[in-house]
Design goal:
The complex is a heterodimer of chains A (119) and B (569). With 119 residues, chain A is of the alpha/beta class. Chain A has a single domain, classed as Response regulator (Rossmann fold, 3-Layer(aba) Sandwich), CATH 3.40.50. Helix content of chain A is 45%, strand content 20%. Chain B is of the alpha+beta class and 569 residues long. Chain B has 16 helices and 18 strands. In chain B, the strands form 4 sheets. A 6-stranded mixed sheet of chain B has the order 10-14-15-13-12-11. In chain B, β8 (415-423) and β9 form a beta hairpin. The longest helix of chain B is centred in the middle third of the chain and has 27 residues, at 184-210. The chains are: A alpha/beta (119), B alpha+beta (569). Bound molecules: magnesium ion. Magnesium ion is lined by residues 11-13, 56, 58-59 of chain A.
């Protein structure tokens, strides 16, 4: 697994981004790009070309599902959201999401899922 | 396990932001209720849902399950409402406000002790009132595969209105991080270091006079220190909005409690002040607003809160268009509470009467209400402005009736420009902000009127205050000995001119007679030494570069006592 991969963390909660970054840093990743809404996320995606996107669903301006529709087939997107309905999870898969973690999550679940996605 | 303690601060500040957003959007939602402006409410409900949702998942991540559940109930309510499956009624709005309050309390408890409060009762109450059937937030962090049991109607989460067409993509620019949150403590530390640096700067400036080689570098250093000081002060500025934000909600609640119809307007929230001032501003404003609701507005009216920047200070005004202050009632209350003797009450000046308003024991309310009725309200305002070196004025009536309280506040704290003066071998600092200019007054221009000396300056009569008399100062023995040899200038009626500093505060002007102007200096305002606490005439003390502690003169309190103007020998 390439630990040098650039990871885009999209979540409107700075708290959530910090928790995720901490988990990722603990697992040996070091290149992070952050954004707090969907529009910013699309812009950062274009500019930074990350190798993995951790994507929140409920975000202001443009929500995660819209982001996914645009970039879901171009890059590996792991959805991390507190929305737990099957229908939504199903929909993200249709738009190309490679995984779905329901918040609250634990450290191991996030690492396992990322390892699976990247290998 | 994720070590959560290091995320607590961020969790709290984000949750506080979200609660504030909830409050603000609920107020807006309430305004839309009667008109049935569904289109506008939809956007508000989206935002309300998002705030509740974010708080839910963050609380759950931190392990605050009860708050997570309550915010989940909130989220479901807003979600149902935006899908027209639930009608928001005034009763529901009230319960939602109450929920925000309860969450605030729980968050405060987290902040203080790390423990959340049990908020389950409120969750049950909300569910019963609205019919939402929220059951639990994501079962266990260990088994996230199990989905949270929400009973939410099945529908897509995304809002198609907010989608961005794909051809917009190229036009988007990358947003850089342009704001960072810094713990207040770090800024305070920076400020403390800054103060020490300033003292060293002053010392160096003294050395420079003895060592000419140092001149260039000391001057450069001084400039740098001044620039850094400015930047540190800038970094400490925060918009008063941070305090204002909770007032619409507060006024709304008070109005509802007292069955009054009150329109509330706020302007100038973007005005920035030093955080120490903003921190302390909350309580006095609560009292002024509460006072306006209790005493100003009878049945219906408007209360306005305004912040305005003047050149050297900031103004914050609280006004209502209701009743004027009933000074007869104030007088009766003052007598009743033994603040003023019944025989003296009618001879009080307007100023003294206004000062009664700020008396800790005064209350004109017959029945004691939660805050303003006890009469502590306005004394809180007075001590706040005294503490930070501002002042409070009241106008009642204003143009068409009503009352306006104006707080005049310094923009920043702690460091001021001042003029150092000498009076009988004692140094004092006079803040620049109160100085008009200094003048030499020929003896011939001094008129003795009754028991007071008045100088004619530019055709205007200026009462003179002899500082050495006010503070009972005399020349030291050494000075007098010196004086026989060299000619040191002393004040005596026979010398040809007097040196005076003209100070102005409001309509009052006075000439402060001193022996000698020393220089202009930046000084750091420190509290008065404890032995001098409460002494009129001083606003604080400062330490000079040579280690001497000197007092900072305060003409507001000095001139309040008119007897200081009286010529005594
Ligand atoms: Mg979110």
């Amino acid at each position: 697994m390439d630990k040098n991969i650039k990871i885009l963390i999209a979540d409107d909660s700075a708290f959530m981004r910090k928790v995720l970054k901490d988990i990722l840093a603990g697992a040996g990743f070091s290149k992070f790009v952050e954004c707090g809404d969907g529009k910013e996320c699309l812009a950062k995606y274009e500019a930074e070309k990350p190798g993995l996107v951790l994507l929140d669903i409920i975000m202001p301006v443009v929500d995660g599902m819209e982001v996914l529709k645009k970039i879901g087939t171009a890059v590996k997107v792991l959805v991390i959201s507190a929305v737990g309905q099957d229908k939504i999870i199903e929909e993200t898969k249709q738009h190309g999401a490679v995984g779905y973690i329901v918040k609250p999550f634990d450290r191991k679940k996030v690492i396992d899922e990322i390892t699976k996605v990247l290998s | 396990m994720v070590d959560l303690s290091k995320f607590k601060d961020l969790f709290i500040s984000e949750a506080e932001d979200n609660l504030q957003k909830l409050n603000g959007n609920l107020l807006a939602l309430e305004k839309n209720l009667p008109a049935g402006r569904q289109g506008q409410s939809k956007k508000l409900l989206d935002e309300l849902m998002r705030s509740a949702h974010t708080m839910k998942s963050s609380s759950a991540t931190m392990g605050y399950k009860k708050m997570a559940f309550l915010t989940h109930v909130l989220e479901d309510i807003f979600d149902h409402a935006r899908n027209d499956e639930l009608k928001i009624t005034p009763k529901i709005i009230n319960e939602l406000f109450k929920t925000v309050d309860i969450l605030e309390k729980s968050l405060a408890s987290v902040k203080k002790s790390g423990e959340e409060l049990n908020v389950d009762t409120q969750a049950r109450k909300l569910k019963k009132l609205t019919g939402v059937t929220t059951e639990g937030v994501g079962k266990s962090p260990r088994t996230p595969e199990e989905k949270p049991a929400t009973q939410r109607a099945q529908k897509p989460v995304e809002d198609t209105e907010t989608s961005v067409p794909s051809d917009d993509l190229s036009a988007l620019s990358v947003a850089k991080i342009d704001h960072i949150k810094v713990p207040v403590e770090r800024l305070d530390n920076l400020m403390d270091l800054m103060e020490e640096l300033l003292i060293d700067k002053m010392r160096l400036e003294q050395l420079k006079n003895k060592t000419p080689e140092l001149e260039g570098v000391v001057e450069h250093l001084s400039r740098l220190v001044s620039d850094i000081q400015y930047q540190v002060m800038q970094a400490r500025l925060v918009p008063v909005e941070q305090i204002f934000a909770r007032f619409p909600r507060m006024v709304r609640d008070l109005a509802q409690e007292q069955k009054k119809k009150i329109g509330f307007g706020m302007t100038g929230g973007e005005m920035e002040l030093d955080r120490t001032i903003v921190d302390k501003l909350g309580e006095p404003l609560v009292h002024l607003l509460r006072n306006a609701v209790d005493h100003g507005i009878e049945k219906s009216g408007t209360i306005n809160l305004q912040a305005k920047r003047e050149k050297d200070f900031a103004l914050i005004m609280v006004e209502n268009d209701g009743k004027n202050i009933d000074f007869e009632k104030v007088k009766r209350a003052a007598v009743k509470r033994n603040i003023v003797d019944a025989k003296e009450i009618e001879s009080l000046s307007e100023n003294q009467l206004i000062n009664l308003l700020y008396h800790p024991r005064l209350s004109t309310k017959d029945k004691v209400t939660e805050t303003s009725g006890r009469g502590v309200g306005l004394s809180v305002v007075k001590s706040f402005v005294d503490q930070i070196g501002g002042r409070v004025t009241v106008e009642s009536p204003i143009t068409d009736g009503g009352t306006r309280f104006t707080l005049e506040l310094p923009l920043t704290l702690a460091i001021i420009n001042s003029l150092l003066v000498e009076v009988r071998d004692t140094l004092f600092a006079i803040p620049f902000s109160s100085i008009e200019r200094s003048v030499d007054i020929p003896q011939g221009d001094i008129k003795s009127m009754a028991d007071q000396d008045v100088a004619v300056v530019d055709g205007v009569d200026v009462p003179l205050v002899y500082l050495h008399k006010v503070f009972n100062l005399a020349f030291s023995a050494e000075h007098l000995a010196d004086n026989k040899n060299k000619t040191k200038k002393i004040i005596n009626p026979k010398s040809s001119t007097l040196t005076a500093v003209l100070v102005k505060r409001g309509k009052d002007i006075a000439g402060i007679v001193i022996d000698k102007l020393i220089n202009e200096q930046e000084i750091i305002v420190k509290p008065l030494p404890s032995v001098l606490k409460g002494t009129k005439g001083f606003s604080g003390s400062t330490i000079l570069g040579d280690g001497r502690t000197i007092l900072i003169l305060d003409f507001v309190s000095l001139l309040e006592d008119r007897s200081k103007l009286i010529r005594t020998s």
